[in-house]
Amino acid sequence: MYRYRINIKYWFYSKLQPPDNMFAGKEYSYDAFVAYTEEDYLWVSGQLRPKMELTDDPIKLCVHNRDFIPGKPIHENIVDKIRESRKILMIISIDFLRCTYGPLEIEYAGMKCVEEGKDDIILCVLMEDIPVRQMPSALRNLWHKITFLKWKDEPNEQVMFWQRLKEALR
User: Fold this and answer.
1) pLDDT exceeds cutoff 60 at 106
2) Does residue 133 sit within a domain?
């Protein structure tokens, strides 16, 4: 039971929600839920949000610093906002893998893939080189099903990165 506590909690929480006809024709509040840690907040707010939201053809992101409901338990906010989002964008760094909620968001993202029966929901941005063996088992299990983009500091590489990211989130 302890090993599967996150899955059990998610299952109970999702069963308490009213059914919405299994996402048929569902209108989403967000184009993408962004899972990140506080250490990556500067990159998310300074790079990601302006490139995605402040353009002629904006992509609406759900970021916890702005969109979570204050006073609501964090795991409920995560589940609700993931459900309200078409895709899930994970900003993967060593800090993300070490923080409390990173692995939880990975688990919930995997469960959303199962619920919706789609493998193209999750997109990961690798902020640094992380060996696969250092990743949590939930992310290793999804490794071959999800798209990864590698962030590079070279300006020439970034142009292509932003194009590919925007394309993947559409």
Assistant:
1) yes
2) yes
Q: Is residue 127 part of a domain?
A: yes
> Do the domain assignments include residue 7?
no
60: left (phi over 0), alpha (psi -120 to 50) or beta: beta
Residue 150, domain CATH: 3.40.50.10140
Distance of alpha carbon 148 from alpha carbon 150, whole angstroms: 7
Q: Are 9 and 40 in contact (CB under 8 A)?
A: no
Distance CA 165, CA 113 (A): 19
Domain extent for 135: 25-169
Select from 115, 98, 117, 105 the least CA-distant residue to 81: 105
pLDDT number for residue 11: 66
For tokens 């142009």, what's the residue? 159
Q: Quick one: pLDDT band at residue 43, thresholds 50, 70, 90?
A: very high
Q: What is the pTM (predicted TM-score) of this model?
A: 0.80
What's the number of domains the chain is made of? 1
